[in-house]
Amino acid sequence: ASRYHSPIPLRCFLPPSVTSRGVAVRGEGPHGTPWGKTYCNSAAIAVFDSDNATVKTARVDSAWDAIRFAERKHTADNQTVQGVWVTRNRDDCIESDWIVNTRVVDVLCESFVGVSASNKRFSKPENKLVLNGAIISVLEYDYRGSPQSGPPIKLRSGKSIGLVVENSVFVLNSTSIVGGRKHFDRRRASLIGCENNLLIWPHDQELAAFVDLPECFSIITGKAEGTQRWEEIRTNWINCHYEVPRSVEDPASDPASC
Q1: Which pLDDT score, from 0 to 100, does residue 28 have?
Q2: Residue 148: its pLDDT value, please?
Q3: What is the pTM of this model?
Q4: Do residues 70 and 51 lie in contact, with contact meaning Cβ atoms separated by under 8 Å?
C-alpha cells in the first residue's frame, strides 16, 4: 500500500492496427493469498478500442491478466496474440471478453485461466476464437476458499462464439477446476473446428469426470509421464522462441535444439 503501483503498465487507446512487440512486464502479483482478499482488476498489457491489434513476442510474469483486449465503442475487431510467454499468472493469460474475432497463435501460457472470451451481456456466435499452437498450462491457486485452477478456455455459454482449436496443448495442474464440467460442455458446444490437440493430466489419480473432450484431443495421464511430456513441450517452445524477452531467471533459448 505504501509503494507506487500501476494496475496496467502498458495501455494503448484507440490505435488502429497497433502492434506491440517485445514488451516485458515483471509483476508482483500474489501467489499464496486468497483470491477475494487480493484480487486486482489489472492487466500487464491492455489494448482498448483497436481494430486489427496485435501483441507479439511479449514476456509477462506474475500479473493478474497478462494481455487484455477491451472496447467501449463496439467498433474493434480482429485481434491477434502471437509468440507470447506468460508465467505465474493469477487470472487470465489472454482476455478477450468483448467476444470479437480473436486469434491466439504459438503462445506459452502458464496461468490460472488460459483464454477468456466470456461476457454475460451478449453473444457473438458469428465471430471466431481461434487457437493454433496454443500451449496452456492452467495453474492451481486459492480461489474462493479452495485450491483449484481455472479452465484452459473460459466461455459464458456454449454458443457465445465459434471456437477453433488446432495443434494445441492443455495441461490441467489441478484436480479441481472452477465451474467443472460446464466449461468443457461449453467448449464442445462452441467448437466449429478441432484437430491435433493434446490434453495432459499430470496426476496419478483417475482422469476427473468433468473432463469431456472430443476426439480431436489425445490424452496423456499419470504424474511421471504427464510431467515429463509437459517439460519437453515447454522446453522446446522456449528453445524455439529466442526472440521473446527474458528476465534474469529465465532459461536461455537453444535454437539448435528446436
Answers
A1: 87
A2: 94
A3: 0.94
A4: no
Residue type, 207: L
Residue 220, pLDDT score: 97
What span, in angstroms and rounded, lies between the C-alpha atoms of 65 and 247? 19
For the chain, give the secondary structure using H, E and C.
CCCCCCCCCEEEECCCCCEEECCEEECCCCCCCCHHHHCCCCEEEEEECCCCCEEECCEEECCCEEEEEECCCCCCCCEEEECCEEEEEEEEEEECCCCCCEEEEEEEEEEEEEEEECCCCCCCCCCEEEEEEEEEEECCEEECCEEEECCCEEECCCCCCEEEEECCEEEECCCCECCCHHHHHHHHHHEEEEECEEEEECCCCCCCCCCCCCCCEEEEECHHHHHHHHHHHHHHHHHHCCCCCCCCCCCCCCHHHC
74/152: higher pLDDT: 152
In percent, how much of the chain has pLDDT > 90?
Answer: 71
Residue 11 in grid coordinates: 495501455
Report pLDDT digits (tens) over 127-180: 999 999 999 999 999 998 899 999 999 998 888 899 999 999 999 999 999 988
